[in-house]
Design goal:
Helices cover 2% and strands 48% of the residues. By secondary structure, the protein is an all-beta fold. Strand 26 and strand 27 form a beta hairpin. The two termini are 47 Å apart.
Length: 681
């Protein structure tokens, strides 16, 4: 790791910014890409400009907003772990764990001289910044940077760097290995592999391991780079980690190989045995040989016995969630990869992970509520009825999609039959199934409108429709849609949204024709609350934007944004849209129930006093609301923080309400009335 600076600049940045905490788990989202640890302190950083810090070896974590995208972290020698350097692509900051402040220790002169910062290394009282062809050095605490060495790499750029007792080592994207002697700052080309060096690690001045593109095995040197040999008993040439003379590991996203004899033999460590498949993106070992793995959704694993066992320092399983549904009594499930199942029985206030005895390679695809406490689960190995956290019956047909006719109660499933998609129907709550039709192509969505029309996306620009419960079907060709429709959602038999993934359309005649609304990336999670009120998500990369329109898609407003992917949504028919998201996260937004469910409802306002009100005071009304129902909604989070059905006292007790702004919603004789209230200290 590497960094440098010329003139010390006393500029501090507070790290106490507003973070976006998920509803579950109650932590911010970040995919970790760098980590450093020493003593009791662990620093990690990743996407969404989030840093995680622990001062008790991972027992608890603080989350703070960083000053940008952190590429490297090095803990300051002699600070007892309380200070660390944070390297961005063109700046270096000193972070103080006690004050939570970032202090800039680089300036424009260093940025212009060094160019793109490539790595940071520390030793004793010195800090080294590696950039393309240049090494700078500064003394800890002074930060007056001096160029101490240059090295010739031509059109290459530096990929990685490391430090042994007496040398700094650098590799490039085209295969060059350079070392600089710490004694006199002289540099030398050690080896040119003529191929990208994906990663390397030096155990000491002589022993090192290199993962080189085009080489099936790790390349090992035992003489400081004079010669290299292939470790044919280490099956993967990826992300080597070395400790001492004999320990070498390779770390992949879902597996490891560990050798205790310098690579002569290796043990396979499958990460899926611990439920962490495809989550690891960064690995490091501290000076004591303690292994840390970091990755998806803030996951940090620790091993003190060279991968014999692992401790999950961030406690919960982080598989991507793909389905979520909650019934009217508040019971529900969220489903994800590696047979992840979360259960709630208090309308999503709390969630617990449960085991319903499915194989880890059994992928869960769809979920619908049946009745009572029963839910129907569609998964790659069957269709199962879930009741009270247990599978009570199953059908072996591999299922991709599920839907329920709310009026008639029958269920539909898109299943796989001899390699083709088919629509199957159940009229007894999922006990028995009858195939209706074989589809010409794989079905990407399945929906039954509240009035009973069935919609299935077909080939490019077509939808398959049935008005009689699946007895007969028609293929409707929408001439102005050239791409295949991915998602579909109708509020009745006429009005609905159709998404091709990059374009959103509206149909007002049951899918016979469609009009273009807008284009973006990954348009999905279509929610149609009424003929005018819509909610959709779109995203670029891994981000998600939640947008609403109250005028049939003419205008759109950003309601919420997340810096990670949203895979599915569920509207609870009240005023909440739930999101199943990457990394095991669950979030929700509150929508305007008035616009969503009944556009003819009447509304008015009312007043409360005093307003603002000091926390602890009584909130009084200017009218008699004895027979009314009241909800207090936190405007910032959209959460209902209090419900009242008895207003006979003529006031509300504000005890327990945090400072902030609230919306008071009153239901009086089927008329909704609203008032905004501020709570102050």
């Amino acid at each position: 790791m590497r960094y440098f600076t010329f003139v010390f600049m006393l500029i501090s940045f507070s790290a106490f910014s507003q973070l976006q905490y998920s509803y579950y788990p109650q932590v911010p989202y970040t995919d970790l890409s760098v980590l450093a640890a020493t003593d009791n302190y662990i620093y990690a950083a990743g996407s969404c400009d989030i840093m995680m810090i622990s001062n008790n070896s991972g027992e608890s974590w603080d989350y703070i907003e960083s000053i940008g995208s952190i590429l490297d972290i090095e803990i300051v020698p002699g600070s007892n772990g309380k200070k660390a350097f944070m390297m961005l692509k063109d700046k270096i900051f000193l972070f103080d764990a006690d004050t939570r402040e970032f202090q800039k220790v680089s300036n424009d002169n260093l940025t212009l001289t060094a160019g793109y910062f490539r790595g940071l290394l520390v030793s004793d009282n010195s800090v080294f910044l590696i950039s393309n062809g240049v090494v700078h050095k500064a003394t800890v605490g002074e930060y007056t940077w001096t160029k101490i060495a240059t090295f010739e790499i031509g059109s290459d750029f530096v990929r990685y760097s490391d430090m042994s007792e007496n040398f700094i080592w650098v590799s490039t994207n085209k295969g060059k290995v350079i070392k600089m002697a710490l004694s006199d700052n002289t540099t030398a080309l050690v080896k040119d592999f003529n191929s990208n060096i994906r990663q390397f690690d030096m155990a000491n001045d002589l022993i090192g391991y290199f993962a080189v593109s085009g080489k099936s095995y790790l390349q090992k040197t035992i003489d400081g780079g004079a010669t290299f040999n292939s470790l044919t008993n280490m099956p993967e040439s990826i992300s080597p980690l070395a400790y001492g003379e004999n320990v070498i590991m390779t770390v992949n996203t879902n597996r490891m190989y560990v050798s205790m004899d310098g690579g002569n033999t290796a043990k396979y460590v499958p990460m899926n045995q611990n439920g962490y498949t495809n989550l690891v993106s960064f690995s490091t070992m501290d000076a004591n040989g303690v292994l840390y793995l970091a990755g998806k959704s803030g996951m940090v694993l620790k091993s003190e016995d060279f991968a014999e066992s692992f401790e999950n320092l961030t406690k919960y399983k982080r598989e991507n969630l793909t389905e979520i549904e909650i019934n009217t009594s508040g019971k529900g499930y969220a489903l994800g990869g590696q047979s992840t199942v979360l259960y709630t029985e208090d309308n999503g206030v709390t969630w617990e992970e449960i085991d319903i005895n499915l194989d880890e390679d059994d992928y869960m695809n769809s979920l619908v509520y049946i009745d009572g406490d029963k839910f129907l689960l569609g998964h790659s190995k069957g269709i199962s009825v879930l009741e009270n956290k247990m599978i009570v019956s199953s059908n072996p047909s591999s299922c991709d999609l599920l839907a329920k006719n709310e009026k008639e109660g029958y269920l539909l499933a898109v299943i796989q039959v001899n390699g083709q998609s088919a629509v199957s129907k159940s009229t007894d709550g999922g006990g028995t199934w009858m195939n209706l039709i074989t589809l010409p192509e794989y079905a990407s969505d399945l929906q039954i409108s509240p009035e009973g029309r069935i919609f299935i996306p077909g080939a490019a620009g077509t939808i398959i429709v049935s008005d009689d419960g699946g007895d007969t079907w028609n293929i409707v060709d929408l001439a102005n849609i050239e791409k295949r429709i991915q998602k579909i959602k109708f509020v009745n038999n006429n009005t609905g949204l159709l998404s091709t993934g990059k374009e959103l359309y509206i149909s007002k005649d049951g899918g016979k024709t469609a009009s273009f609304l807008f284009n973006n990336y990954n348009i999905s999670n279509l929610n149609v609350f009424s003929e005018k009120y819509f909610l959709v998500t779109s995203g670029s990369g891994n981000s998600t934007s939640v947008k609403v329109s109250k005028d049939q898609g003419e205008n759109w407003t950003l309601l919420e944004s997340y810096c990670f992917s949203t895979n599915n949504s569920f509207y609870d028919k009240d005023q909440t849209v739930w999101f199943a998201q990457d990394g095991g996260h669950i979030n929700k937004v509150t929508i305007d129930k008035l616009s969503a469910s009944n556009e003819t409802e009447t509304t008015s306002t009312f007043n409360t006093y005093p307003n603002p009100v000091v926390s602890g005071q009584q909130i009084k009304f200017n009218e008699d609301f004895q027979k009314s129902k009241l909800e207090i909604i936190d405007i910032t989070t959209g959460k209902i923080v209090r419900r009242l059905t008895d207003l006979s006292k003529g006031y509300i007790d504000s005890n327990g309400l945090n400072t902030g702004t609230y919306l008071i919603k009153l239901n009086q004789d089927d008329t909704l009335r609203f008032s905004k209230l501020s709570i102050v200290n």
